[in-house]
Amino acid sequence: MRVGIGLGSNVGDRSNELAMARKWLRGMDPGARFSSEYETEPVGCSPETPGFRNQAAEIRWRGSLENLLQAMQDYERSRGRRTVRGVNEPRALDLDILYAEGPVVRTGRMEIPHPRMAGRRFVMEPLSEICPERKIPGLPGTVAETARWLGARGGSACRRIG
Question: What domains are defined for the chain?
Answer without folding.
Answer: 2-160 (3.30.70.560)
